[in-house]
Amino acid sequence: MFSWILFSDKNIDHGSIDTVHAVVDTAAHAAGEHGGKENVFTELLHHIKDGSEIELPFIGHVHLPHFHVFGIDMSVTKHVVFLWLAAIILIVALSIVARKNLKNKVPRGFGNLIEVFVMFVRDEIVIPNMGKGGLKYLPYLLTNFFFILAMNLLGLFPYGASATANVSVTAGLAIIAFLMIQISAIRAQGFGHYLGHLTGGVHWALWPIMIPIEVLGLFTKPFALCIRLFANMTGGHIVILALIGLIFVFKTIVVAPISIAFALGIYMLELFVAFLQAYIFTMLTSLFMGLGMQTESHGSEQGHGH
Amino acid sequence: MLDINPGLIIWTIITFALLVVVLGKFAWKPLLQALQAREQEIADSLKKAEEAKKDAERMMQENKIAMEKASTETARLIAEGRAMAEQLKSDIVAKANESAKKLIDQAKDEITREKESALAQLRSEVADLSISVAEKILDESLDGAKQKKMVDKVLQQLQKN
Question: Does the interface ipTM go beyond 0.90?
Fold first, then answer.
């Protein structure tokens, strides 16, 4: 069933790739007339793209190992490195904070900040969407929120990259979200009810129409999560790089103040979006899980309102 | 950027799964525990404060009642004292009046008695005098004119007395 997602993703991706290429070509052509080089745009895309090397300050380019496992390319790429970096930062920072908060009765500074987010996820996301029964999925949702947030924020550092600006990473997160949504629904309602849910509660004669729609609905939710996060994170980066790229396209320093002012504005927007997208991904996952967990008959009606 | 890389998806899933396990053990469990403990403590403190407030209010109510009782008691005592004093005063005045009246009555009786005894004395004196006068008259020869004169004289003397 995941191959289906990948397959459909590919279909859409080819379309968008063509569009992006078309835009880039037109812009490069226009830039060429002004004396700029196509180089600017390839450079621009290079920054967002995953790669087999990372750039470090004072050291330069570091090549990452390539290897295959069972015929799958499991090479450690730039985004895998940032994935791990985000994970390591979270493990170190959060375990220190957790130990401190357990000792201090009144958490201060960073510990307090983390606790505000934890409380927000618990009281504003999980409990309203899933009720008290959702608290057993709290560790998953908290990890989801903080992991996405950490990856988003890493892209805002110099030499950094957002792993979430890679559609494969967001697809991985969406697959986990898909599994969690189904598991929580099956655990809350039982497998029979879960399957019954797929008929949409209509007359059996309509089942041939209803069941494919419902099954499709199961996949569209995580698919939307995947694309939303990816597009939001990529979009901000492209805008910043394009604004900076203008300086090189026009080959004049006069554009620089304007470019930088706008880039700074977009950067701040991206800072906000980093938090916002982590919240939206977590909130929607929690919402979908909550809808699946409702056992009452009216729950199914609400569940299909999308 | 846009092509699906299965290796990266697998890496993401592996990393995420490990992260959930590790953070679940070392971060979320203690964090949520601390949070819950604190919330419990806050709730308990609030409850205690509420109880203390209720106690204080109850005590204040009691104090108020006691004070009211005390003030009514005081008023009653004052009124009682005043009534008693009034009673005492009127009693004393009545007694004084009575004894004064008694004294006056006694004095009056005394006066009457003295007067009566004085009159009785006078009467006996007058009788003695008349007898002596009569003796004198009888001693001197009783001539009509002289006699009359003498009697007048005696009577005049009597009147003067």
Answer: no
